[in-house]
Protein: Solute carrier family 22 member 3
Amino acid sequence: MEFDSVLKEVGEFGRYQKIRLTMLGFPALIGVLHLFLQVFAAGKSNHWCQSWQSEDCGVLNLTQVQCENFKREISIPVTVGEDNETSFEQCKKFNVTGVDFETAIGIVGENVSQKTIPCDEGWVHDQSMFPSTIIIDFQLVCEKSYLPNIAQSIYFAGKLLGVLVFGIAGDMFGRRKVQLFSYVCGSLLAFASTFSLNFWMYVVLRFLTSVFFSGVGINCFVLANELVGPSRRVLAGNVFWIYFSVGYGVLAGLAKLIPNWRILQFVVTLPYIPLLVLTYFFIPESPRWLVNQGRSDEAEKVMRKIAKENEMTLREDFTMKNCTKDEIQNSSTLKESFLEVIRNRVILLMMLNMTLNWVVQAFVYYGLSLSTSSLGIDPYISFLISGAIEIPAYSSCIFVAEWFGRKKTTFFTLILSGIACSFTPFVPYGILRALVASLGKFFITMSFSVVISWAVELLPTSLRTSGISIFSMSSRIGSVLAPVILLLEDTWSSLPVLFFGFMSIVIAFLCLLFPETKGKFLPSTVREAEGLHSDRNLAFDAEPEEVPTDHGDGGKLKTPHVPESQKQP
Structure:
């Protein structure tokens, strides 16, 4: 008996699964808090060179604000920005060394010196928007201004490593064990990062935190999907996406209420403690994994508990001993499949194109998500909008892709994302600019969600899991690159978003090289996958006819489901 048949007998999606799915979804929400924490922990603000740091302004009958204004006006050069507005130089000051402050006040309105020098007494920061950040604590300005972006890239690299390591560990040792281990290690490291003494200590601890919290995320999602029946797995996946999107709003609210980055880091880590307790007492080991390990007695106990809570009556001779194990691809079969792909030019080019597609779409998605503070409105509001826009994007893409097909949906959403990004620099700073940029985020979210399913439909059975894993790993490269490209804002603030728009449009036309798969059977072999390309053209394919294949287990796929570990974001 197949495991999915047993799930139908105990209840595919009853009370038991609904409660566990709710519990297992919360780590996705909390994961977003850590994923994008640095949007606020490294929030950028105006800064300028410190001068006369030890002077007591009270002696001169000046308020602190008056004192700082005088110091700035006398010692800091004025520059003209790209919007023709004047601002104070951030990394240079007039050489006021040896000039008495009381004397300098007497000549306010004149430059004490025309010679400029780099900041030699530290910096003063405008803390009105971001009172406490790693930029302020570790003085990551001027020649060190690139370091916060590098820290974010390293955090994303930790996700790449974590998915790889703990995905394999979950298959070897069990979803629940790895989940509990990752909770403990990740939480301890996250708490430790709040006490970082310097920037590199912060980076290392955040990197390790990312590795372990990736272990939580991937095994939570896999376990959730293995507890529900096949007809409800798409729903289970969508629940995780909704948790992910809600996390944006939660982070924006917490960051507004808790302006100190260390306290914020501590607070967003606290929920992992009750989640650890809930997992230990209420989340079982995956019964599917137990069956595959030959531990059918333990699997049967879990299934009987599911049936009891779902109020399902089992037959008297119910047993898991005859439950068949999942067919696992062995290394020799996998090797043969990859050799066949290398020899098959059509499939090889398709996989290379799809890999590039995932890299670029992840690159654009994360680039837009991380650049919300540069839109000219309250950064907390813009970040909230960026997350809220994903909910209708995820909801609508399922229906749009089924109605218009994968190719049209992906092509036009990428084009529209590119257009929105390209227009953003020409829209005045403010709410209108934020809305235009959000349209770019909306369409790239739709596109990426569709292309994930499209990739599943293009790959043969022998390569489907390994192929999606390759695409997923490659997409993490895009997320690592996104913060680096945002450094171009220092050259021209609009350059990164223009680059995101350009890449979206380029990859849209590369999508035309893929065949339409709407209504077609899933290919079982490399030859069948190649056959999908036989009637492909660079325009949009006509509505496909249902043509039987040479395999007996095929079927029309409406909305294929992909594990969270193989999705992006």
About this structure: Residues 110 and 315 are 93 Å apart (CA to CA). The longest strand covers residues 47-49.
